[in-house]
Amino acid sequence: MRIGVLTGGGDCPGLNAVIRAVVRKGTDVYGHSFVGFRDGWRGPLQNATVPLGVEAVRGILPRGGTILGSSRTNPYKEDDGVARIRDTLAAHAVDALIAIGGEDTLGVAARLHDEGIPVVGVPKTIDNDLSATDYTFGFDTAVNIAMEAIDRLHTTAESHHRVLIVEVMGRHAGWIALHSGMAGGANVILLPERPFDIDKVCAFVEHRFASHYAPIIVVAEGAVPVAGSLTVKEGELDAFGHVRLQGIASVLETEIRGRTGRESRATVLGHVQRGGTPTAFDRWLATRFGLHAVDAAHDGAWGTMVALRGTRIDRVPLAEATRELKLVPEELYAEAEVFFG
Amino acid sequence: MRIGVLTGGGDCPGLNAVIRAVVRKGTDVYGHSFVGFRDGWRGPLQNATVPLGVEAVRGILPRGGTILGSSRTNPYKEDDGVARIRDTLAAHAVDALIAIGGEDTLGVAARLHDEGIPVVGVPKTIDNDLSATDYTFGFDTAVNIAMEAIDRLHTTAESHHRVLIVEVMGRHAGWIALHSGMAGGANVILLPERPFDIDKVCAFVEHRFASHYAPIIVVAEGAVPVAGSLTVKEGELDAFGHVRLQGIASVLETEIRGRTGRESRATVLGHVQRGGTPTAFDRWLATRFGLHAVDAAHDGAWGTMVALRGTRIDRVPLAEATRELKLVPEELYAEAEVFFG
Amino acid sequence: MRIGVLTGGGDCPGLNAVIRAVVRKGTDVYGHSFVGFRDGWRGPLQNATVPLGVEAVRGILPRGGTILGSSRTNPYKEDDGVARIRDTLAAHAVDALIAIGGEDTLGVAARLHDEGIPVVGVPKTIDNDLSATDYTFGFDTAVNIAMEAIDRLHTTAESHHRVLIVEVMGRHAGWIALHSGMAGGANVILLPERPFDIDKVCAFVEHRFASHYAPIIVVAEGAVPVAGSLTVKEGELDAFGHVRLQGIASVLETEIRGRTGRESRATVLGHVQRGGTPTAFDRWLATRFGLHAVDAAHDGAWGTMVALRGTRIDRVPLAEATRELKLVPEELYAEAEVFFG
Amino acid sequence: MRIGVLTGGGDCPGLNAVIRAVVRKGTDVYGHSFVGFRDGWRGPLQNATVPLGVEAVRGILPRGGTILGSSRTNPYKEDDGVARIRDTLAAHAVDALIAIGGEDTLGVAARLHDEGIPVVGVPKTIDNDLSATDYTFGFDTAVNIAMEAIDRLHTTAESHHRVLIVEVMGRHAGWIALHSGMAGGANVILLPERPFDIDKVCAFVEHRFASHYAPIIVVAEGAVPVAGSLTVKEGELDAFGHVRLQGIASVLETEIRGRTGRESRATVLGHVQRGGTPTAFDRWLATRFGLHAVDAAHDGAWGTMVALRGTRIDRVPLAEATRELKLVPEELYAEAEVFFG
């Protein structure tokens, strides 16, 4: 069997661990061979390949990024996209595709499967917002990076008089904010799922200062205010009521200063959260996803993707990957609220 | 309600996170009060207490160790142990006990429950060898520490001609060795569950050197050879066929040198694996265990302990904590073996 | 002898290590006693003290922040400030003061010394911009934190098409940017000492993209453009030609997008750089500063402060602490420029 | 100019940073070309080369190990060693050699220089025991790794009743033990330079337990007892009175148990200390060593090596590298002793 492998979408620690596991087990246990496609769907679309054997994956387990490159290319937005993919697969005598990516990449994979292309998926989202699996790799790394930043702010909080704001990733779901905020001991956590009341945030701020300790606010980049509650201009909110990209920390600074007179100091982690070496959990999960994905390809379980359920790796339909966004449920947020203020 | 809290057994990152969550939710949400018992079961046995309120738990979330102290004291090995515990609980008007500990501590808790003492348990084992729960806190921290050590050895392995051995914790179960070895990319992983064949280990060693790279062996402290296969004196094996405490790395050094002529260099991590600040996963899990344990006490769910199942925290009978050791199953070890050699 | 100790100015990893060393050596070797003054010069001014003995400093070596608190209070801006300090010192029978702080705190110390108050100084600036000493503690910690962030961005840079900007501390001197940028392998480093030419920055950006790799720009918060070169409104520059606080990263984003069409993604580390546990170098330096400061007090070397020269700790006049800002010299910046583009 | 580069001796974080700086500045600023020799002096001896240009050094700054490989090959122990080196240099039209290594590697370089071969040196010793330079790269990394291990032991020490022993590198000089022990807050530090009195060590152990805290002993692998003071058999000491390789931690365990009845638990870090990514200080120092080494080659400063003096990089005669071992002086050890017990 000859298997093509590609990675699509944003960077995520663990991608290389998946690739390595696929190639090692596929080669050493099953005797399959591999071809790497460059830059997500651009690879099969433009016949851009890279050799992919046991030597190519040596030493990549601890490394962030992806040796295959990535992109957001969508073959369904190209002329004859599917036909060109079929041509490339035929030209390389590829019997199966393993597509590693998020909602977009796997959405394409699901459609290609419907059109008869033999494909298996590996889910990837640093935001952990995929309902079909308990966790996705990369998430634990991002949470630890954010937590370590919060840890460092705590000593400063003891002797400072500024509000400390940490902006983390999470456009639509607040998992990184929730986990890092709880693990770091934040005083307030703001998520996209729960529009925040700026007056309550300011009340927590003042309550915290009353105990001679600066408040630490963890805010997901996609957190939104209750409609109409802010004093910033409306034009700064996007069509979904979201404040402009990467701006929520500075919006909070302005609003808090206006209402309490308190200065803030923001930490904006940005892409630091999605690069670098993965944690042990993410390497373990990514490696197991890779092992089980190549099993699925070997078994001809087309149209499925791997998923974590408890400590088991299951196969679920690819369609599940995109069916529903996994949001932070009310009862989990309530657990975090115990520690607010 | 007045609730007593104690921590027993070996050190484990996350103990303080449990205590903090119990006290914060118990106080702020339920209005309960708390008393800390010192050094595990020694506290109620000898009436050794420490004040335990919201102030006492401030800032302890990221800290290793336990503010309550710990011990391996067993009230069933003391004269009138249970009666003395009843006396202490009465003297402090304690309505419920939350016992945080491993097999021994929770075994005592289960017996006390059978005798009518209102107790709730929180499982703790850094070895992750408890079948009632998917994971225990502290384990993820230990795995990451071991993995980081292995990561550092890899660069040395590229230019060295010595066998690199890493001895990790795991007297009866090899979870730490398995996870850290897979996450670190070890060439051989030796577990207590699978007696090793020293000739096969040496074959992996030579195979690895053949690719101009020094082999990295991860070995659980409780790993055992196939009976009679070693050349070391029998007296160095204990009654269970285990080599003497902390000795497996040096036994391997001797055996490998004798059979292959290769020198080894050992890293023995020891207690470093069970101290220091917890990872985000362990803080999250420990915090949630604490929240749900105080819920269980509040609900009067005596004789239960909290357990992780997937992403849910469940209540299970305390007896389950000690019923069965969770060993590494054959099929998981087989996943790791893909990467051997 | 009875010695008062205080810490002033911004947070800096290593403050607790200084305090511990002063108290341990002063108590155990010399038999002196200590009193802690709270919140910098506010302590002696308002008679705010805290007990300071061997027990109080146990376990604080690895902890960020300062157990004494800090402030920017200046007794020379208060009515009768010096007289009130004399009163407090007399009330506590204090024979000597050890003042740990930056330019402001030590400037006050120098003036008090001139007025006959027996004081010894320990220099503290996370920015490392003090000409009297080779290094100050806290700096190495900040540099490592910034470097680790840059490290993580590198894997993302391999597969991304955005300019990655890292804003670090350094209002007047660019030491943190220079060291972290060189250690992290940045493609451009912008310092306050060298007004930058935005067109050259954009040229480096394009040159880097030409090798299929996203550029990483490290910028000190106080970096300034060549006058009149930016398209942002002039009102956003302060009186010194500095762009507004914490704004340089977003100014760069706007300018680069306007000139090259490239999107950027910023990481703003903020206070994360000045909190948390110190590196080994900073603990070593802070501990030695503390040991030598208490020696100086014991010897009655009033009006001096400790300073690192090579591997030696010397005593220098307090006045030197504030005489001249240590800026990044031309030849060191030239070393970094070798790696630009 | 065409310059050969080689790395000799044991692994040390920062080697790749030196190589990168040499090649980047040599190529981009001076227009020189490079050839890499494999595995130290084996490369020029056996004509084993590797291409070494700007592409080869991309991305290696943060990586441990050396892309050139290393060995302990000594051309003066080979027939016609020097003649064969001359032949290889001629065959590759090499005008200059940059040799990066420790006492042995630079000792060979000094002799080759005396015989007219144009060579420049870069000092490398993880043990920091070279008198010609304030610090060598790799040392700061090793100290931080050891310190982090000690940090983790501290929380365990609070609730444990075992002596905690950390064995670190340092065969002849105790710099790593001294710095990591001081930075980590060890209770006893044992160095090769100061034969230890086991009874005093036991007294510190008991003193520490008296304050309900387990003692942490940091011991250099080359630490030696006062002659005749131990109860272990004499045969376990080597010709220099050193206990056998890697054995000092277990010797201490045996002796302490015999004298105090206390159990110990050892952490032996081994090669973990010399692998992996370098700290910022080590990357900074290694990069500057590389820049100044290629300057020296460009200037024809044969027979010199680079050295750190304060914050300056100087050129010193190669002979100085091997003249004298830099031992821990009495007065520095006395600074550490303040914190013993």
Structural class of chain A: alpha/beta
Number of strands of chain A: 11
- Gross morphology of chain A is elongated
Mean pLDDT reading of chain A: 93
Please identify the oligomeric state. Answer: homotetramer
Please name the CATH topology of the largest domain in chain A.
Rossmann fold
Residue windows where pLDDT falls under 50 for at least 5 positions of chain A: none
The first-level CATH class of the largest domain in chain A is given as Alpha Beta
What is the domain total for the residues of chain A?
A: 2
Question: What is the straight-line distance between the termini of chain A?
Answer: 58 Å
Helix content of chain A: 25-40%
**Binned strand content of chain A:** 15-25%
Biggest sheet descriptor of chain A: 5 strands, mixed
Main sheet: strand order of chain A: 3-2-1-4-5
The two chains with the largest interface, and their residue counts, are: A-B, 37 and 37 residues
SS element count, helices of chain A: 11
Give the topology string of chain A: H per helix, E per strand: EHEHEHEHEHEHEHEHEHEEHH
Provide the gyration radius of chain A in Å.
Answer: 22 Å
CATH-derived architecture of the largest domain in chain A: 3-Layer(aba) Sandwich
Binding site for Mg(2+) (chains A, B, C, D): 103
Keywords (chains A, B, C, D): Cytoplasm, Glycolysis, Kinase, Magnesium, Metal-binding, Transferase
Site (Important for catalytic activity and substrate specificity) (chains A, B, C, D): 104
GO molecular function, one term (chains A, B, C, D): monosaccharide binding
